[in-house]
Amino acid sequence: MKEQKVPFLNASDFGEDFTWGVSTAAYQIEGGHDADGKGRSIWDKFTDTPKMIHNEDNANVSCDFYHKYKEDILLMKSMNIDNYRFSLSWTRILPYGIGTINAAGLDFYNKVIDFCLENEITPWVTLYHWDLPQILENKGGWTNRQIVTWFSEFTQVCANAFGDRVKHWMVLNEPMVFTGAGYFLGVHAPGKKGLKNFLPAAHHAVLCQSEGGRILRKLVPGAQIGTTFSCSQITPYRQNKRDKKTAIMVDALLNRLFIEPALGLGYPTIEAPILKKLQPYIQPTDMEDCKFDFDFIGIQNYTREKVKYSLLVPYIRAKIVKASKRNVEITLMDWEVYPPSIYNMIKKFGEYSQIKKIIITENGAAFKDTIDGEIITDLDRLNFLKRYLSEVLKAKQEGLNIHGYFVWTFTDNFEWAEGYFPRFGLVHIDFKTLKRTIKESGKWFSQFLSHKS
Ligand code: BGC
């Protein structure tokens, strides 16, 4: 990417009560995959499966946050970051998914939470960021309706253990991605495919999303409870009737499927008729039970997608046209750099009158870094952040319902099926020595945050 003209940004323009932070996920950073009684998750198994992950990488060690959490939290503090979103590894806490609690697992998160608080960093905890216990997957995982009971137990344990100090919670991270990539396309753990897996997994995720919210509400006084959704602006590839209709259908699947039942709007079956096939999994009181009055909704935006009608694609008759085939600016993920997408998503979610508050819980980009000794230059990432942030500011200045922004991500980490190849961090990790070095983008963010008021 060429150097872009980027507007000058001032954190104080977002207002004093705007929340700034960074986001991470347990499996992507912790390592310690079998440390101190941790059980095996679907990602531990999936990364052991040949040909599923770029370069056959795994996150057995990753950034070793499990042992280096103090160093990372201190680094965050030195960078003026005062909100930290991270997730809990279910099998560190409940090695068998349910039942026996692993005291060492609780201890680890207690230490992380306490160290954040000691350093005046507010912990924002995501209960589930994709690392289901393998033992539960052996019983069908998200396709088994019993997941609602399993997930409720996990939620209760976490709420009781950490709720005295953690007041910001997110129930699920991107249900569309973990059910779509994990249970429809088979490219993420647990590698299942097809509608027969996807549909029950999706409905059960919707049930867990609200049930998790209710449990947190009951057990954690004063909690701010949210959940997070991936979202991308969906545009028709060609301006013809069929592509336009396809875009509306894909938008319903990718952007509306998980939020609308929570808001009491049901599934968007008119625009995405395929969702009528959810019916056999829906029990009489389910659509009531799917509702929950979240305090905030986290939206996570990286790109936009262009879609076209395609007779060749079964069920949905839609195809995403890859960004690399569209002659547009792209990141290492082959995602289009399209800053207005974040503004348009804030606007779109802002139109739901039931949503109390929107927070960008992830935004960021994978680009190649240039390493010269201690200087790590990542101008593309820096420009990406500034350009997307200026769209967030535009939304804020227009009075849209936007209250915070978290960068994905703090340090480089394990990027799921792409392994360690795409780096998203504000902080570089040398995966051989585990040395942390703040990149130019991180220095900029830190400087930016120093002018919040
Ligand atoms: C996920 C992260 C992931 C990031 C970049 C989001 O979909 O929540 O876990 O690393 O996007 O792909």
UniProtKB/TrEMBL annotation:
EC identifiers of the protein: 3.2.1.21
Coiled coil stretches, renumbered: none
Active-site residues, as the UniProt record annotates them: 174 (proton donor), 362 (nucleophile)
Gene Ontology biological-process annotations: cellulose catabolic process
The keyword Hydrolase belongs to this UniProt entry's keyword annotation: yes
The family this protein is said to belong to: Belongs to the glycosyl hydrolase 1 family.
Protein name: Beta-glucosidase
Biological source species: Maribacter aquivivus
Highest classification ranks of the organism: Bacteria, Pseudomonadati, Bacteroidota, Flavobacteriia, Flavobacteriales
